[in-house]
Each structure stands twice: as C-alpha cells, then as structure tokens.
C-alpha cells in the first residue's frame, strides 16, 4: 500500500511516501518557509522522486496537531482534500506522538511537548519499555510546564525522562525538576517526521470521516473562551 | 464541430463564507454553493479570524463536493481551478488556497490565483456582458474603490477610501443603533421607510477627487446619538438610518457618475457586499439613466462573497494564459494589478 504522509504542525516540514513499512522518499526541511508556500510543492517533489502519480496514492496520513494553528490547518486541508478527491482513506495522528515515536526504544518516560508560549506547552507523556507503551503518563493537553512536571513526578520518582521537543526553553526548569533523570534527546530525534506520521497511522488502523475531519487544536479560540465566560457571568 | 465548453471550478474563503462554484465559459453558473458562517459569528458581533479559519476547514471539502455534484461534473471535466488569493483574512484565504492546490494537483489541473475585487467586478459577467471602457464601483466591508477598465484584466484605480470602507461605516452605525450583525441590510431596510432624516455631513473632499471618506460621517452619527441620549431623549433609529444612508449614497453616486462622464465609459458596474444596498442601487440606476450610461449590478446573491464570481474572473484569466503554481500564498493585502501571463 502506498502512503503519503504530511507533517506541518510546527515550523519544520516533513513529507514522505512509503510502500507499507518502507520509506521510499522522505523530505525534512527546517528552512522557515511558510507551509502555505512550500507544502504542496514538496508533496509534488516527493511524489516525483518516488515515481508515484497522484492517483497511485492509496492512503493519506496527516499530523492533526496540536501545534501551530495555521500550520496544522494547512496540513489537514491538503490531506482531507487529497483523500476526498482521490477517494482514499485518511488517518489523522497526534503531532506529539509523532515526536515521541522518534524515541520509542527509550526505556522510561518519553515526554514530548511543543512550546505554546507564556510558560505553557502542548504536552503528552508515555511510559515506554522495549518499544512498547506500558502506560500513559500525561494525557495530551494544553497546560503549564509546571503541571507537566507535577504529573510526571506523581507517576514515577525513578524512571528516566526523555524529552522530545524542538524547544530548549524549558531545559533548565526540567533539569532542576528531574536532575540526573532528565535526558533531552538530540535535535535530530526532535524532528517531526512524516514517516512516523505514516507508521502511527498504519498502527492506528481506524480511518476518519474525511469531510468532518478537523485539526486537534487542544484549545478553544480566545473569542469562544471569552464568550462562554460572558454567558456564565450572565446566568 | 461544436465548441467544447470551458468549465472552471471557483473557490472563495477570504472572509466568512466557504464557497465553491462551477462556471461554464465564464458567464454561466452551473453550480454555486455558499456555506455562510454568519450564524456562528453573530455572537461575537463580527468575524473572528481564528473562528473563521476553523469553520472553513470544517466546510471546505463538503462545499467543493456539493458544487461538483450540483454541476453533475467530474473533476476530469474541469479545465482549471480558480481560487481567491487575496485580499482577505490570511488564515481564511489559506484554507481555500490549499484545498484548491490539493484538488488541482490530484486531478492534473492548472491553478489560477484570483484577486477578490476582480472577482466582485466579474460577478457582472454572470448577468450581462462587460462593455469596455467601463467604470466599476466596488463597495464592501473592506473596500470602497472606483476602478477604470479599458479592457478585460486591465484595472486602474482612480479613487479609494482614505479611511473606513463604506461597509465598515455601516457596521459601526448599526452597532450604535443596536441592530443585529451584520448591520448593513438592517440600516438599508430602516432607511427605506418613509419619514424624516437626520442631516449628516457629506465628505466631498477636493472638488476633482474621486476618493472617499466615511470616518467623519461615522463620528457624526456617534456624536449625534450621544447627544440625544444625554438629553434623555429617544433615538429615532429610522431617521438616523435614513440620514446616514443618504449621506453615503449621495457621495458614492456623485463620484461614480462624475467619473463615468469624465472617462466617457460605455458601462458602469457596481460590485461588492454594499452594492446589494437598495438605496444605492436605486440612486445609481436613476442618475446613470439620466446621464444615458448603461448600469449593471449583479443580483444580490452575487454581490456578497461567492465563488461564482471567482470562477467568472478565473475564466478570463485562464483565456489570457494566467497560471499560478504550487507556491501560491495567501496575500491579505494583495493589490489589484492588471493581468499578465
């Protein structure tokens, strides 16, 4: 089965074409070019290199967020339009799991997060052993780094903490909290890869309804939050 | 041999309408689908950009599918995909643009980026033939412009607003009068009722200018309403609506008719959301008839944002050989420039 994978949830761009579990072509860029300008060209280039015609793609995998709202929307819009017009299955996967999967052979807690500014992150963590998930540690959500640390500490005081993130802004805080147990993974393992998007999609098995598919923002818009507050105070 | 018709798929997501349409030979609407966000955005009293972007993602493939189904056409029947490139809300534009790219790429079609205002102008092609040279009055929530066109795809801006767009002034005055969002149609409705009108100023600017200004008028309405309330009197919303609308319509009509005469055009066309305004349509019709100049304005459903107009403009661009590529970006402040291939 020929898969096209799309990852645009943060600044780096990753596009891959895979035949089953084999990566035919994968392109990773961190050139600070907007996904809007680059993503479709990159899909075209990767498919040419893989000698795949659009109609030969059999399934689409996309990173559905969390991350940059605009970035995620571009990936999701490309993915759902392709899946709909090519009439093929679409699978959305978590951008945090895409990052975590880079470190799936670590032994301990894999904590992936995306900087959401103002001390907050989109974070998620799993207890992993020999490539298998033992247990979820931190459910994916938008929260403060402080809360992330608390939840991880309450799960375990002994396990190593492997952090996967494009950001190193919290490294000091994390080192202070976890001391010797803190293992920030190398930058090269913090790249969100479209091949991992496809692998997660292949493992997931369940496809999504194309028309109703939307990003996982993990956050309401500010306008909606304020509106709800107003409704409550008017009650 | 019978000539093969040219079908263009148009896509428009520049603000709060997710729209797709199929246009045959640039003039015939084969299908036209608009999913409006007004119901959802009303609670915010205006369009919230992030909410608009999120709703576009929910609707986009449904709307395109509906447009193809209504047209009873396959993607292989199409010749090109035309999509609004700007101006507009950038996050909103990007949904239409990326859907257009993916659809075009998957089906081996060329993609054409269309200027939103060119779309509004070409909405007229859907009802009547454009006759050059012509003068186009563009009035909407974001634009108030007079554009002279010598031929297809040649745009020369001869006048524009120096502050608020006409539609913006309508929205603000509607808020002063506590009318529901969007306020323009409500003001128009109130203004149609016979009765007295509050006398508001008209911004004529320099004698020879074709520019507009509506912020002074807006302030005058706000001040008037403050004063009435301070005196403890009741505001008469109909009289305010009438006075405000008369001021706007007088200026728009004077400028348009004077420009049409000065440039000796064959036709005047009105376009954009505010061209749905009955007061404006009647005034332009009357004054241009008196000047013996042909006047065209699209039916109301093609004055507001839609994709049929993008398909109509896209067709003329397609014929001229204009093509975009996969790097097309949303251009929130895109200027209206003449077409070249």
UniProtKB/TrEMBL annotation, chain A:
GO terms for cellular component: cytosol. Pfam families: TsaD. It comes from the Bacteria. Coiled coil: none annotated. GO terms for biological process: tRNA threonylcarbamoyladenosine modification. Residues 34-227 form the Gcp-like domain. This is tRNA (Adenosine(37)-N6)-threonylcarbamoyltransferase complex dimerization subunit type 1 TsaB. It comes from Savagea serpentis. The lineage of its organism: Bacteria, Bacillati, Bacillota, Bacilli, Bacillales. The gene is tsaB.
UniProtKB/TrEMBL annotation, chain B:
The keyword Acyltransferase applies. It holds the Pfam family TsaD. The gene is tsaD. Required for the formation of a threonylcarbamoyl group on adenosine at position 37 (t(6)A37) in tRNAs that read codons beginning with adenine. Is involved in the transfer of the threonylcarbamoyl moiety of threonylcarbamoyl-AMP (TC-AMP) to the N6 group of A37, together with TsaE and TsaB. TsaD likely plays a direct catalytic role in this reaction. Belongs to the KAE1 / TsaD family. It catalyses: L-threonylcarbamoyladenylate + adenosine(37) in tRNA = N(6)-L-threonylcarbamoyladenosine(37) in tRNA + AMP + H(+). Residues 28-311 form the Gcp-like domain. This is tRNA N6-adenosine threonylcarbamoyltransferase. The lineage of its organism: Bacteria, Bacillati, Bacillota, Bacilli, Bacillales.
């Amino acid at each position: 089965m020929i898969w096209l994978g799309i990852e645009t949830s943060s600044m780096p761009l990753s596009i891959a074409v895979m035949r089953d579990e084999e990566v035919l072509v994968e392109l990773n860029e961190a050139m600070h070019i907007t996904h809007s300008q680059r993503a479709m060209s990159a899909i075209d280039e990767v498919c040419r290199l893989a000698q795949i015609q659009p109609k030969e793609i059999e399934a689409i995998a996309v990173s559905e967020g969390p991350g940059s709202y605009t970035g995620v929307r571009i990936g999701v819009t490309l993915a759902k339009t392709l899946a709909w017009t090519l009439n093929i299955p679409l699978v959305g996967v978590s951008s945090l799991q895409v990052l975590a999967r880079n470190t799936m052979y670590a032994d301990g807690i894999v904590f992936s997060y995306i900087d959401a500014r103002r001390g907050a992150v989109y974070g998620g963590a799993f207890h992993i052993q020999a490539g298998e998930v033992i247990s979820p540690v931190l459910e994916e959500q938008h929260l403060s780094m402080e809360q992330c640390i608390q939840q991880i500490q309450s799960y375990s005081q002994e396990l190593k903490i492997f952090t996967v993130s494009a950001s190193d802004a919290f490294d000091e805080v994390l080192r202070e909290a976890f001391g010797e147990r803190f293992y920030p993974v190398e930058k090269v393992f913090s790249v969100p890869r479209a091949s991992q998007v496809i692998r997660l999609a292949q493992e997931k098995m369940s496809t999504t309804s194309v028309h109703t598919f939307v990003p996982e923002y993990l956050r309401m818009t500010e306008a909606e939050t304020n509106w709800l507050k107003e409704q409550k105070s008017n009650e | 041999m019978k000539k093969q018709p040219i079908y263009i798929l148009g896509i428009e997501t520049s603000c709060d309408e997710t729209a797709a349409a199929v246009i045959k030979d640039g003039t015939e609407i084969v299908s036209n689908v608009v999913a409006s966000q007004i119901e959802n955005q009303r609670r915010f009293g205006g369009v919230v950009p992030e909410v608009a972007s999120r709703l576009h993602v929910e609707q986009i493939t449904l709307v395109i599918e509906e447009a193809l189904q209504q047209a009873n056409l396959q993607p292989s029947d199409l010749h090109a995909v035309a999509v609004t490139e700007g101006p507009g809300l950038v996050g909103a534009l990007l949904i239409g643009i990326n859907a257009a790219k993916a659809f075009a790429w998957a089906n081996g079609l060329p993609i054409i980026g269309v200027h939103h205002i060119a779309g509004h102008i070409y909405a007229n092609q859907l009802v009547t033939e454009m006759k050059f040279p012509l003068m186009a009055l563009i009035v909407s929530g974001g634009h108030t412009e007079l554009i002279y066109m010598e031929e297809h795809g040649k745009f020369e801006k001869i006048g524009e607003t120096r502050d608020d767009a006409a539609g913006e002034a309508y929205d603000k005055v509607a808020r002063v009068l506590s009318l529901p969002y969007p306020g323009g149609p409500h003001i128009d409705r109130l203004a149609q009722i016979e009765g007295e009108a509050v006398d508001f100023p008209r911004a004529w600017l320099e004698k020879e200018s074709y520019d507009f200004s509506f912020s002074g008028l807006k302030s005058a309405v706000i001040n008037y309403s403050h004063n009435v309330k301070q005196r403890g009197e009741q505001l008469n919303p109909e009289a305010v609506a009438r006075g405000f609308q008369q001021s706007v319509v007088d200026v728009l009509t004077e400028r348009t008719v004077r420009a049409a005469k000065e440039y000796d055009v064959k036709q005047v066309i009105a376009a954009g959301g505010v061209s749905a305004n009955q007061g404006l349509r009647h005034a332009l019709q009357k004054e241009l008839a008196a000047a013996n100049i042909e006047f065209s304005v699209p039916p109301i459903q093609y004055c507001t944002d839609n994709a049929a107009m993008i398909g109509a403009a896209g067709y003329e661009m397609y014929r001229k050989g204009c093509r975009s590529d996969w790097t097309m970006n949303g251009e929130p402040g895109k200027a209206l420039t003449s077409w070249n291939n």
